[in-house]
Amino acid sequence: MLRLTWVQPEDLLGHELRQAAQDGREPSAVAARWKAAGGCEAPARAGASPQPPSRYLRLLAEDLLDELADLPSRSAEHEPTDLRRIKALCREWPDRPDGDPPAPARSALEAAWLGRAVGCLLGKPVEKLPLDAVRRLARSTGNWPLTGYFTARGVPGPLLEEHPWNRRSAATSLAENIDGMPEDDDLNYPLLNLLLLQRHGRDFTTADVAGLWLDELPAGRAFTAERVALRNLLCGIEPPLTARHRNPFREWIGALIRADVHGWTNPGDPAAAAEQAHRDATLTHTANGVYAAMFTAAAIAAAATGTQDVHACLRTGLSVVPPRSRLARAVTDAVRLAAQHADFDTVVDELHAEHKAYHWVHAVPNCALLAAALTHADGDFTGSIGRAVSGALDTDSVGATAGGIAALLTGDPAALPDHWTAPLKNRLATSVAGLDGTGFDTLAHLTWSLTHREASRP
Question: Where would you find the membrane-spanning parts of this chain (predicted)?
Fold first, then answer.
């Protein structure tokens, strides 16, 4: 029996009910109808419930998804998706620079690519595991705080039976198994965005992103909001409706993991980076899901100049986020917590308590964790990725973004500890055509070639 993840209406409805409550709609009447009909809650960790529903329940789920979409939202005024409205709310929106800021050295971009891969790889084997499991697995081998990759060597058998590694990742991401960087969507999307800029330049449209995905992104390599958007495209639905139609994942982390290239290719111009990230993100996301990508792109654009510390970069990221949005409040509070507590476990505990209503892949808690990790580690590479992954949310995604930013700030791949980078063997696996096996030095060169204004259209 095939239970396709992330697209079946009966599985989407529970997520949409949660999303509606979070973005200021009133879903209680719809929730009562779904429960009375025998509908189940959304799967907590998986993408599909184990058994198919009756035909009646599936049709009811489709109707209720559409009904929820029509409910008015109390947060719409403070959390728009339209770029003009976002800018109007951001009183500190960055000015565009005079002339072209200097492009980052290729060595800095190679460090950023490597750092993104290392942080992702660190988080892969514990993705989907609860916080207590991540802590117990790491402590059982003396790797807490995290300063190296996870290993199964020395972990007690009963603990592994209780909390097994991520099934898809353990064979390629535990320390004893690493042989190059294995495929991951957190690296696939930056690769796709390289192709996007090569083919369409900086003035790409959201429709250009959609066309590229249809040509180059295997549906089985897309998840949550991205998989729903692909389904919508194949049903003839056009952007930006692709982000809203029966898509309860539109505020999850997917747009954030696509943002790095927009920052790397706009050094010193966080406004341009945020605008590129917005055009990319609105294929799949709305509101806080879009802000997460804009925040990340702007912060990376600031980091790419090599002149700002991590704290200034995070402040720049916040300048493109509506200040009364849930994401802005969460990031601001997380930075404050990180500055208050010497023990990062205490920071994580408070973040989990504050954001317990959100799914572990939602952009709001993950952006909060990202900002807290970078702040608490003061931008140190090992400290940043270790803290990001130890927070036990979307471990590979937050680890990747934290690693990319912290590594970019070092400016040189030689500044990254060898025990992190050597196992990658300068080799990246991917299903993006033509890029499988590419080295990080080559990716840095390709990225560098896109950082100049004259490269706005190849």
Answer: none
